[in-house]
Amino acid sequence: MLKYLVIMNIFIVIVLFLVGANRSSTFVIKDVLIEGPDDYGLSLSIDNSGKVYVLGDSNNGRRSVVYISRFNSDGSVDRAFGNEGKVIFKSIAGGSWDKTYLSCLYVNKDKIYITGESMNSSSDYDAFVIKLNSNGSLDSTFANGGILLLNNLAGGQWDDFGRAIYFHEKIYLAGKSWNTQKDNGNTDVFVVRINNDGSIDRSFGKDGKVLLNSIAGGDWDDDVFTLQVDNRGKAYIGGTSWNGKGENSGIDGYVIRLNSTGILDESFGKGGTVILKNIVPNSLDTYVYHILVSEYGGIYACGDTWDQIRKTGFIVKLKDDGSFDKNFANNGVCIIDGVASGSGDNLVRKVAVDNKNRLYVIGSSYNGKDSDAYILRLDSSGKIDKSFGKDGKMIFDFVSGNEDVGLSFDISKTGLIFLTGWSRKNESDTDSFLIRIENPDN
Question: Which of 104, 173, 366, 442 could make a disulfide contact with 100, Cβ separation 3.0–4.6 Å?
Answer without folding.
Answer: 104
